[in-house]
Design goal:
Blueprint: H1 20-24, H2 30-41, H3 47-59, H4 62-90, H5 92-115, H6 120-128, H7 136-147, H8 152-183, H9 188-205, H10 219-222, H11 232-259, H12 266-285, H13 293-307, H14 309-318, H15 321-332, H16 335-349, H17 355-383, H18 386-389, H19 391-406, H20 409-419
Length: 420
């Protein structure tokens, strides 16, 4: 396991944290690769919504639309870690471009199959081909880790910015997809998403000066998997639980707004939660932190669990959509710090040369949790009530907290401090 960069970090200079984001983007080439990556990352919040609207609108079946997107999610969970391993081994530009083009062809094939009323099985095959989409957020984080190696405080700011960018893309992506599909034609969201993805990845890959060098592994290290690295399985288990928080909150909020007769407002409500998380992530990046990240990790998860009781109380006790909006805004503020700390720990515990693969495993766990949380939250919202279903994200967050405590995150951090 690689040594944590915190042990070799230089002392921060005067004014180091006064304007951390300006200092971050003072590095040559960082603005160019960040803008390109944002363009490539935005479609990640567009494709699933676009596919559901496109398929359900033309085939008249939400069940088929949900099954197709679930198949794509399952395929991504299988393929994404292998794609990330190739990125680490052969370089971002060499692997990401062909992988993106393959995924783009899958999306275009899905569009054509829907447009020309092809058999249902072709929809599943086409959407499964999109599983080669590279983890653009992970590649951006890998560039920051390469550029800021040894500067723990600057890397914390970069990770915070990347988490805020994730929230922004997943906040704007569904809104943009719904607007395009509803305003123009059902396939518009998928078509624009493909253009953004391909253009963004090509522009990102062209920024060679900031690209991490390919890793040439030894015979022993070549077979190393981040999944087996010490401390990684508990982090991935927490990611799975965190995904359940996200997936259940989204479905239950839509169901609650629909029950209140404000289904069209559900997107704005969820965007408000993402906005709270985005703002908290940017603020968290300005903080000068001390001590092991494991300590902060447990406290961040505990804060998230506590704040997630607010939507449950607002929905159960008042049934007011405006109060639920406020509750979700505050609940979202603990999400970004938790995910930022989680990704920092993933970077620390990932074996050398496997950074993209390690972060992609974390994203895959999140996607699996989202699928489970969506199914569980939807079932409870339908068979009990949307208000009662807000207990699912609280339970998932509590499970994440128990995992972090039971796997000895605090004890392991204390052991390293004492041994030092």
């Amino acid at each position: 396991m690689p040594q944590s960069p915190s042990t070799n970090a230089p002392a921060p200079s005067a004014g180091h944290s006064s304007r951390p984001y300006r200092r971050l983007f003072a590095h040559p080439g960082t603005r160019a690769f960040t803008l390109a990556n944002l363009a490539a990352r935005l479609p990640m919040g567009m494709f699933s919504v676009s596919a559901v609207v496109m398929i359900a609108g033309t085939r008249g079946s939400y069940a088929l639309a949900g099954a197709v997107t679930a198949t794509g999610l399952a395929a991504t969970a299988l393929v994404a870690p292998w794609t990330a391993r190739l990125v680490d081994r052969y370089g971002q530009a060499r692997v990401a471009v062909p992988a993106t083009l393959c995924a783009a062809l899958g999306s275009l094939a899905l569009l054509l199959c829907v447009r020309y009323d092809a058999p249902a099985w072709t929809l599943f095959a086409a959407y499964a081909a999109t599983a080669t989409t590279p983890n653009t957020g992970g590649m951006s984080r890998a560039r920051w880790a390469h550029l800021l190696k040894g500067d723990t405080e600057a890397l914390h700011t970069a990770n915070s910015f990347e988490q805020a960018a994730d929230e922004l893309c997943f906040m704007l992506g569904p809104v943009l997809a719904a607007f395009l599909c509803g305003t123009f034609f059902p396939e518009a969201g998928t078509l624009v998403g493909v253009v953004l993805l391909v253009t963004g990845v090509l522009a990102f890959a062209a920024q060679r000066s900031t690209e991490p060098p390919p890793w040439a592994p030894t015979a022993e290290a070549a077979g190393t998997s981040p999944f087996r690295a010490p401390g990684m399985p508990p982090l991935l288990a927490v990611c799975l639980a965190m995904g359940a928080v996200f997936g259940s909150t989204e479905v239950v909020t839509i169901a609650f707004a629909d029950a209140q007769g404000h289904r069209t407002a559900a997107g704005a409500v969820l965007a408000l939660q993402a906005a709270g998380s985005c703002a908290a992530g940017l603020l968290y990046g300005r903080l000068r932190l001390s001590g092991p990240a494991e300590y902060r990790y447990v406290w961040c998860i505990a804060a998230m669990t506590a704040l997630l009781t607010l939507p449950l109380l607002a929905a159960s006790l008042t049934g007011s959509l405006p109060l639920l909006c406020v509750a979700l805004l505050f609940a979202g503020m603990a999400t970004a710090p938790t995910m930022i700390t989680n990704m920092a720990l993933v970077q620390q515990r990932t074996p050398e040369g496997h950074l993209n693969e390690g972060m992609t495993l974390a994203v895959t766990a999140l996607l699996g949790g989202i699928a489970c949380g969506s199914a569980t939250g939807g079932w409870l919202a339908e068979h009990l009530s949307p208000a009662a279903a807000y207990g699912v994200p609280v339970s998932a967050a509590a499970a994440a907290l128990l995992i972090a405590l039971a796997t000895g995150a605090v004890d392991s951090a204390r052991g390293r401090v004492n041994s030092g």
